[in-house]
Amino acid sequence: MHFSKPDQYSDHVRTDLVEMLPVTCGRFLDVGCGTGGTLELIKSRGAAYTAGVDIDAESIKKAKNRLLDSVIVADIEKDDLPYTEKEFDCIILADVLEHLYDPWKVLKEITKYLADTGYILLSFPNVKYYKVLRRLIFHDEWTYVDAGILDITHIRFFTLKEIDRLLAVAGLKTVQMKKHIVSSQRMRLLNKLLINKLDSFLAYQYHILAKK
């Protein structure tokens, strides 16, 4: 990974993603774990083993104060991870892959640590989000900011179709997909009138549960 998350990322507990998990027992790996809050939540729900990886040493220092089994500092694009093949029942990559130069290679490499019956839980910002396109089309703006879809540390950008292609490269298939819709009431009404034809524009993020 080539980025260090601001505090609002590192400390954020992804309850929205945890609710998508078929089970919360077994062995979990959170890649880009931040300060470990999401792993701690999973641990409290019965996980047998929780491991975390993050590039930011300060975040890992905080994570070590939580009730987790193992957390390490590592750059997943450069460092070998100390895990065995098929070791984990679930691997989480929450808003991580868009920060990487080669997310296709990384996801394929990470997948080798996943049990044959396991799941990978991912989230991606949607570059097709209507506010991003509106600023680009009508104002000629593609302005990077500290956080959000145009986060200045984002290297790659994804639509839902590109996410599917990324998963295919890693030998994964989607078993559940949720759209995190963020829009005005007016846009929601228009979308309803159009029988949800605007979903791909109103989705701020995609949450994906995948398996081999």
Q: Sheet bearing the most strands, described?
A: 7 strands, mixed
Q: Termini distance?
A: 23 Å
Widest β-sheet, arrangement of strands: 3-2-1-4-5-7-6
Q: Which structural class do you get from the secondary structure elements?
A: alpha/beta
CATH architecture, please?
3-Layer(aba) Sandwich
Order of helices and strands: HHEHEHEEHEHHEHHE
Content of β-strand: 15-25%
Question: How many domains, in number, for the residues?
Answer: 1
Question: Can you describe what's shown?
Answer:
This protein is an alpha/beta fold. It has one domain: Vaccinia Virus protein VP39 (Rossmann fold), CATH 3.40.50. The protein is built from 9 helices and 7 strands; from the N terminus they run H-H-E-H-E-H-E-E-H-E-H-H-E-H-H-E. The protein has helices at residues 7-10, 15-18, 37-44, 57-63, 103-111, 130-139, 160-169, 185-193, 199-202, and strands at residues 27-31, 49-54, 70-73, 88-94, 114-125, 173-181, 203-211. A 7-stranded mixed beta sheet has the order 3-2-1-4-5-7-6. The mean pLDDT is 94.
